[in-house]
Amino acid sequence: MNIVLIQGPPGSNKKKIHDELVNFLRTVCKKQVAELHIGEELKHIVLKKRDSSEVIHEYIKNGVLVPFETTVPIWKKTLTELAPNVDWVIITGALRFAPEVTKFLLFVSEMEQVKKVIRLAIDLPIPVCRKNMEQRIDECKNGTKESYINHKVSAFQKTTIEAMDFFYTYGKKYPFVSFKKINGYQDSKLVFFDMVTGLSNKKKRTTIAGDNCSGKSTIAKLIANKLTIASLSSGDYARSIANGSGVSVEKACATAMEDKPAVENFDDRIDDWVKSHNNDENFIMDSRLAFHLIPNSFKVRLELDAKTASEWVWENTERREKEIKENNIKNKEEFQMITEKRLVDDIARYQKRNSIDIRDRKHYDLVINVKHYKNQTEKIAELVLEGYYKWLIG
Which residue ranges form the domains of the chain, and what is each CATH number? Predict the structure, then answer.
């Protein structure tokens, strides 16, 4: 089993992040997940009068963290019982003091049933946490607000530097994610991206292939913007090569396999550019052949038939005027014929040159027929991101 330890100061929304991660692993990745909230688990032990309940109750009653040595037998028994039946155990709680964290991580990593231990550290400013706690107390209408908040926050402030030093010192041995902050607070989508990518050892890169007018570039740029990663396009690179030689990219592609191509070594130069990113990560690339040239990537294909593509383009005034001006296309039917010919030529080109059928779905991790999502780029991007997260976890 794999273990995720979610840590953070009071008021850092640990529970929300815990719930999002559990839901993702269960519903998207179809994994067996167990949940442990350290504080709740200890309270449950006290209520049920199990194990070291009397000793634990004294610590809790006096507002003192329960020493790790007292809880070792409890965690060992709980995790051992869970191991045969779960893929992931998500643990959330107050293990925020560096010495206690050290002991806990060493303890669980040495259990033979544990494959991987990941620590997710929620690094939020104290004022933000305090504000969150004030809101929570107001909602509960329970207890003395100031004394409760001051006790909790001061306890965290005393150990923040020590704990964060520990995180960075032991970061290589026990990976952790320090969640991104937008204007001093968490953007939930960025937090979730950090959280999921922090659980994976795979290189973070996505390649998008697809039919003409299927929205490859649009979707790639949209996702890159959402995740604040680089957006790369072999089409843009090919266009720059063609323009540098004084020809259109359409002509460069059409003559690439001829004895006298319009641009010398056109395909080779594009392939070399794509492969130059093989050791990089944190990017998304739209490219017909990147799935083949960058094999260890999340590979997506967007499908769209030529008839539907021509109808969509002709309904879009800007796109229609561009095709009329740049390619002298007179009507929708002519555009459909040209689109179909481009596809046939591309299939033959890659089959002859690379011995690969770019339409074969077995090459891809995710295939989306965008015909069902007209004018829904946000929805398509969501589907790609969901598939990407699932691929990262494995």
Answer: 2-197 (3.40.50.300), 205-393 (3.40.50.300)
